[in-house]
Amino acid sequence: MHAMDHRLLSVLRECGADPHVAAAARALSWTGEHGALWLAAGLAGAAADPERRGAWLRGTALTAAAHLASMGVKLVVRRARPTRVEPLVRTAGRHSFPSSHATSAAAAVVAYGALHPAGERVVTPLAAAMCVSRLVVGVHYPTDVVAGAALGAATARLGVPWMRRALTGGTAHV
Length: 174
Description:
The chain is mostly helical and 174 residues long. Helix content is 72%, strand content 0%. The chain has 7 helices and no strands. The radius of gyration is 16 Å and the shape is globular.
């Protein structure tokens, strides 16, 4: 598994040699830092959908909680970031497992997708691009990204019933 992790990282990092791919991956890294893109999306959903504002805010809280959980796991696992490839971005921390970008992206897909299926069609490809970008910029191993996505999806999935309880009046459905 270790050899496959390194090989897949090397292949995807090579994609970053294309300046357009590198620019896109850097932009995704920047907007995904500390879950910023996903938190902003949740707050925008809350502002745009007053009938389900409480559920959107709870979905945003779940996304933030998933991100915090990933940071806690990083402190326990303490896996070093890849060193065999030159990173295209600087990172906020030195630990790699799990990818917090992938965690918050997957949490957003599950939480916001439960609120608006049409939005899920937009969020899912963007979240997938965010996950792949972590490999293209060379700051995570594939297993970091997979673990982060699983953690985020599970965290949000557990919280969907809590989101549903925020709905009132019986007219809005999640």
